Amino acid sequence: MKNLVVLISGRGSNLKAIINAIESRKINAKISLVLSNKKEAKGLEIAKNHGIKTKFIDPSFFSSREGYDIYIAELIKKEKPDLIVLAGYMRILSDEFIDAFEGKIVNIHPSLIPAFQGKNAQKQALEFGSLITGCSVHFVTKDLDSGPVIIQAAVPVLPEDTEETLSERILSYEHRIYPQAIKWILEGRVKVEGRKVIVKDAKYGTIPVNPSLEDF
């Protein structure tokens, strides 16, 4: 069985979607550790309620971001993960961490990458006047929110949208495309060639999700 380590900072809604996918046997994997940089992260309680080991590591105990990342990387290595999943993890990973798990880290971002990278992507989309935005699952590289994209979902922006309403509309697709991408990766169907990602036997050319969802 494949093994996941999930990093969180907040409410853990994407974590819950992944847990649900595992418990419903859509994803043949286990989560051996949920790690957070925030003691009050609600996702830690979600993990505990599902019998998953959790750790809170306080960044303030470390003199540098690199020192923190080297420490948590050593903890994560003990879990022997097949994939590291960033689910609302609000820290920029250091080069040292990415080097330790190169090609094995994925993230979900609430925009159609390369648009609106970094924090508050939904607010950025509203302020720019975009009519379509969405979410992307991508591999993590040393360039922020710029790694090769696995799957994207397009979401309309409505005239009356606020940051909150747009975020909720995007989130409903996040909860579907993230488990799907994880399943594809763990099944060995994802091939990366430079910036291009191909999912073997996936159906391409579909809207609003490309490639098309299969299980979620």
TrEMBL record:
Pathway where it operates: Purine metabolism; IMP biosynthesis via de novo pathway; N(2)-formyl-N(1)-(5-phospho-D-ribosyl)glycinamide from N(1)-(5-phospho-D-ribosyl)glycinamide (10-formyl THF route): step 1/1
Keywords recorded for this protein, A-Z: Purine biosynthesis, Transferase
A molecular-function term among this protein's GO annotations: phosphoribosylglycinamide formyltransferase activity
Gene Ontology biological process: 'de novo' IMP biosynthetic process
InterPro entries to which the protein is assigned, alphabetical: Formyl_transf_N (IPR002376), Formyl_transf_N_sf (IPR036477), GART (IPR004607), GART_AS (IPR001555)
Role this protein plays: Catalyzes the transfer of a formyl group from 10-formyltetrahydrofolate to 5-phospho-ribosyl-glycinamide (GAR), producing 5-phospho-ribosyl-N-formylglycinamide (FGAR) and tetrahydrofolate.
Annotated catalytic residues: H109
Catalytic activities: N(1)-(5-phospho-beta-D-ribosyl)glycinamide + (6R)-10-formyltetrahydrofolate = N(2)-formyl-N(1)-(5-phospho-beta-D-ribosyl)glycinamide + (6S)-5,6,7,8-tetrahydrofolate + H(+)
Keyword Coiled coil: no
Family listed: Belongs to the GART family.
Protein name, entry field: Phosphoribosylglycinamide formyltransferase
Positions bearing the site annotation: Raises pKa of active site His: D145
Formyl transferase N-terminal domain boundaries: 2-182
Keyword match Coiled coil: no
Residues annotated for N(1)-(5-phospho-beta-D-ribosyl)glycinamide binding in this entry: G12, S13, N14
Binding site residues for (6R)-10-formyltetrahydrofolate: R65, M90, R91, I92, L93, N107
Gene name of this polypeptide: purN
